[in-house]
Amino acid sequence: EDQAAPATPRPAVGRLADDAHNRDRVGLLRLATPGLAGEPHRSAARLGAGGARRNMEVVDAAFDAYQRGDMEALVKLADPNLVVSQSAEMPEAQTFRGRRGFVEAIDAWAGAWDDFRLARLRTRAVGEHVITTVHQRGRGKSSGAEVEGTFTFVFTVKSGKFVRWRMFGAS
């Protein structure tokens, strides 16, 4: 099933560190197929269509809530023990925990940009993981520099809530 999604402002990302800790994630990231700028967002469920599709719907609902500016709805989709991980290669990378940490992660990233936009390029569900490739652009608030890039988010969804959100930059 393919879906189109408009360009939207979003939280963002880091880079995949090439170390033993992150090697287990490389297989998931390869499925995301970065570099599709110009193509509409497409969602494709893989493995276990029913559960994978429901997991993808949770992530789609989270992106939709963020687009609407509905933080309350967005936070309700997060597990109370959510872990948000930014790649070690991301400037000032951090790990955030819980719903409060989730909001802090979004605020920290979105607050650094003027005119921030994020377009979802592709979303694929693989078991309990939902992999979303995005293209983002913005202008740094302090520097004024225009920045853009392609990034991958890996969400882990259990019981209708995302329990983990990992952010990686394009390799």
Chain-wise SSE layout:
Blueprint: H1 23-30, E1 42-46, H2 49-68, H3 71-76, E2 78-86, E3 95-97, H4 98-110, E4 113-126, E5 129-140, E6 146-158, E7 161-169
Parallel strand pairs: 1-4, 2-7
Antiparallel strand pairs: 2-3, 4-5, 5-6, 6-7
In the predicted model, the low-confidence regions spanning at least 5 consecutive residues are: 1-47
Question: If you compute it from the alpha carbons, what radius of gyration comes out, rounded to the nearest whole angstrom?
Answer: 15 Å
The total beta strand count reads 7
Largest β sheet strand count, sense and barrel closure? 7 strands, mixed
| Straight-line distance between termini | 27 Å
Would you tell me the overall average pLDDT?
Answer: 75
- Strand residue content: 35-45%
What portion of residues is helical?
25-40%
What is the number of helical segments per DSSP (H or I, 4+ residues)?
A: 4
Order of helices and strands: HEHHEEHEEEE
Largest sheet, spatial ordering of strands = 1-4-5-6-7-2-3
Shape: globular
| SS content category | alpha/beta
Describe the overall structure:
The protein is of the alpha/beta class and 171 residues long. 27% of the residues lie in helices and 38% in strands. The chain is built from four helices and seven strands. The protein has helices spanning 23-30, 49-68, 71-76, 98-110; strands at 42-46, 78-86, 95-97, 113-126, 129-140, 146-158, 161-169. It has a seven-stranded mixed sheet with strand order 1-4-5-6-7-2-3. A hairpin with a 2-residue loop joins strand 4 and strand 5. The longest helix has 20 residues, at 49-68. The two termini are 27 Å apart.
